[in-house]
Amino acid sequence: MNCREVERWLDDGGAPERYVEAMAHARICAHCSAVLGTMDELESLLATPSVAAPEALTRRVMAHVAVTPQLPVRIPVMELLPFLQTVPWWARIATEPASLLALLLASVLLWRGDTLFALASVGAATLASWLGQALSAPLPSPDPGAVGAVLVHPNVLTAIALGVAPLVFMASRAIYRWSAEMVARPRVR
Fold first, then answer.
1. What does pTM read for this prediction?
2. What's the pLDDT at 140?
3. Residue ranges covered by each domain of the chain
């Protein structure tokens, strides 16, 4: 067993079956011996019964808190980002990732817009022909016991998902309204 394994053994809770190996390593390693000694000391401190705080401690602490001036909590954004104070608004907008992406897209569209449109048209035509072939593929012949085979066909699963999705959205909206009405109603006691 090495130092890393001893630390892992301690982190895992010190399994009894590896105790002998850990102690054998601690006898020859000063670091692990100190770590095991600290763990033993900590366990003995945790095992001793706790001592109650003096009666006047709470009163003294609260009296000290009462006379201490309380400052409002504020989040120092400008102190964390001091460069925001010196950079003009148009420069901050130019460094936003969404602005940079929109600028890049606009410049590519202006530079090679006709080529991109032709590429998109070819891609759309290819996608349409692939979808036409996939949707015109014959479904397996329904056997009396093969209803499950029809239901797992990708076209059927897609149609079911497209049909159920609006129903799920409408039901979630109805449930939301119903729960909002329940919360808004005053309770009579």
1. 0.28
2. 55
3. 3-47, 142-189
